[in-house]
Amino acid sequence: MKHSLTLRGHRTSVSLEPEFWAAFRDAAAARGLALNELAAEIDSGRAPDTGLASAIRVYILRRLQT
To answer: Rounded to an integer, what distance in angstroms lies between the CA atom of residue 12 and that of residue 61?
Structure first.
C-alpha cells in the first residue's frame, strides 16, 4: 500500500504493508509526532543504501522488540 509523505518540504511515496502502516501510525502517535515528522527522523538516520520503506520497517521491528 503506497502513501505519500512530505520530508523536509519534499513529497515522496512509501510502500508498506497495511500492518506496518498501522504500527507506524501507532509509533508516531505514541511519541506525539505527525507521520511526516517520524518519517523525516527515520530518513535522517538511515544509511544511504537503505530505502525509506525498509528503514521504517526496521524502526517498527525494533520498537516492537523493546
So the answer is: 22
Q: Concatenate the DSSP letters of all residues of 3-65 into one string.
A: EEEEETTEEEEEE--HHHHHHHHHHHHHTT--HHHHHHHHHHHS-TTS-HHHHHHHHHHHHHH
Grid cell listed for 1: 500500500
**Residue 55: count of CB within 10 angstroms of its CB:** 18
pLDDT digits (tens, 9 = 90+) for 23-47: 999 999 999 999 999 999 999 999 9
